[in-house]
Amino acid sequence: MINAKHLTVASSGVRNILLTGGSGFVGVHLLASILNHTDSRVLCLMLGGSTSEASQRLASGLERHQLVIDWSRVEILLGDLSKPRLGLEDSHYRELQQSLDLIIHAAADVSLFSKYEQLKEVNVDGVGQMLEMANGTRRIPFTHISSYSVFNEVSYRQEQVVFEEPLPVREPVFRNGYAESKWRAERICNEANASGAPVKILRLPYILGAASSGTCNPQGYIELISKAMLLVSVAPDLDFNLTSLPVDICADLVVQVALGTPAQSGIFHLTPFAPFHWSAICEAASNYVHELELLPALEWYQHIKKCALTHRELFPVVALLAKDPALTQFQSNIHRLRFDISKLTDCLGESPAFPENRSAYLRRYIQCVGKI
């Protein structure tokens, strides 16, 4: 999926990598990609009462997604993004600043319906804490995992092309707290970059199941809706295009860009593949259910809410959509924007190609969704 030779050469001087968010859906794939394509040692910054508890949580995530790693090159670092110096002893903190060669910051609270104030501590202040570590006694190359949600504000028009460049300075009107938190996190990274810090910002689209295995995010927004569709043979009738990326390809691209030279700092859109319409997921689902029926979004929600009285498996999606029963999230402009990838292509030396037939991938992905 990526040029492994390029990675090995590029990582020859990168001995120690600090990874945050390593136990999450994207994080476990990032950890596996780093270890599979480099000879680097990875320190995983994790919350936890003990190293063994954090290690078990990480191991469970890897097993869930069928990932095998070389544990001899992994070290668990207990810390807290919300605390000064990550809650570490001063001596340990200074030692890390001297030994790290790269930081990949993937930790985030991805609760789409939470208020900004609830997300600020992790998604904004946490970025500040990591940048403080990266720009201490020596400057450590820093890769921040951002999101296309930074464009989820009212000033962007339909069908507009957005470029790999810093966000406008003006204060926009955001459509949700998550978008605001990622926007403000980017602003902090841009300020650090402007001061000469080697910072890369990678804007990710919606992350789907792995192209290699089909394993998917059991808590994902699209996944929970698709699971409900399979259970009740009814789908919401939606009109939007999904810009997405399989998680394993995403992880490989993040690692390749992060390991590029510091001179390649800046903003990159990890959106190399053309979006597909919601109907493509419905078509894939129709292979596993008998006569998939379409209902208007609000009617669909009311239907699954009623079905949840006898299908406990529907509880998670009913709870998730309680704040958005008409599924207005899919009316967001981010599902109509087009994303420039000029800098990504320049960094990689080529434009990535999807590894297989998209329809075959979606069928395998939906099959995996049915098992969560």
Percent of sequence in beta strands? 15-25%
CATH superfamily: NAD(P)-binding Rossmann-like Domain
Biggest β-sheet: count, sense, barrel? Answer: 7 strands, parallel
Reported CATH architecture: 3-Layer(aba) Sandwich
**End-to-end distance, in Å?**
26 Å
For the largest beta sheet, what order do the strands appear in spatially? Answer: 3-2-1-4-5-7-12
Round the mean pLDDT to the nearest integer and report it.
92
| pLDDT < 50 stretches | none
Give the SSE order as H and E letters. Answer: HEHEHEHEHEEHEEHEEEHEEHEHHEHH
Radius of gyration, in angstroms, nearest whole number: 20 Å
- Structural class comes to alpha/beta
CATH class: Alpha Beta
- Summed up, the domain count is 1
- What would the CATH topology be? Rossmann fold
- How many beta-strand elements? 15
Helicity, as a percent range: 40-55%
Q: What's the shape?
A: globular
How many helices? 13
